[in-house]
């Protein structure tokens, strides 16, 4: 079977890039909103997730835009960070800005999960492989 990168269509790739760029923008805007709102919106862990999400979304978009062979790795990480950010934003109640951020993060997480193939690709570790080969049967 072909690697996950080969099995994706151009429309999947373009959609994921668009989702990552939109999520980056929404997270940066939401970060500013949360700082102004204060209280639970400005808790360190929540703000850190918004910053992490914005950063990994920008990075993933950049990897895909330049055709990096490693984009599935950044997409996997992006999916995980976006999922956590969506959960954090979702805990803020009926706040319309937070709901919009949670929705965008969920959409980006799903898109990146699809683009990343749903699993973290593993790089063979030649030292570990040799140690395993040296073990008695």
TrEMBL record:
Coiled coil start-end: none
**A single Pfam family, by name?**
Csp
Q: InterPro entries this protein is in?
A: Csp_YhjQ, YHJQ-like
UniProt-recorded name of the protein: Ferredoxin
Recite the lineage of the species.
Bacteria, Pseudomonadati, Myxococcota, Myxococcia, Myxococcales
């Amino acid at each position: 079977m072909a690697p996950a990168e080969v099995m994706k269509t151009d429309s999947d790739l373009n959609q994921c890039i668009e989702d990552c760029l939109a999520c980056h923008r929404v997270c940066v805007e939401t970060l500013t909103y949360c700082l102004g709102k204060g209280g639970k919106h400005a808790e360190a862990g929540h703000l850190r997730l918004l910053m992490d999400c914005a950063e990994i979304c920008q990075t993933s978009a950049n990897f895909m835009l330049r055709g990096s062979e490693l984009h599935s790795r950044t997409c996997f990480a992006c999916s995980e960070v976006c999922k956590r950010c969506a959960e954090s934003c979702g805990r803020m109640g009926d706040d319309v800005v937070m709901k919009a951020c949670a929705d965008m993060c969920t959409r980006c997480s799903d898109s990146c999960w699809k683009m990343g193939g749903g699993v973290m690709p593993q790089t063979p570790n030649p030292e570990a492989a040799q140690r395993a080969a040296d073990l008695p049967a």
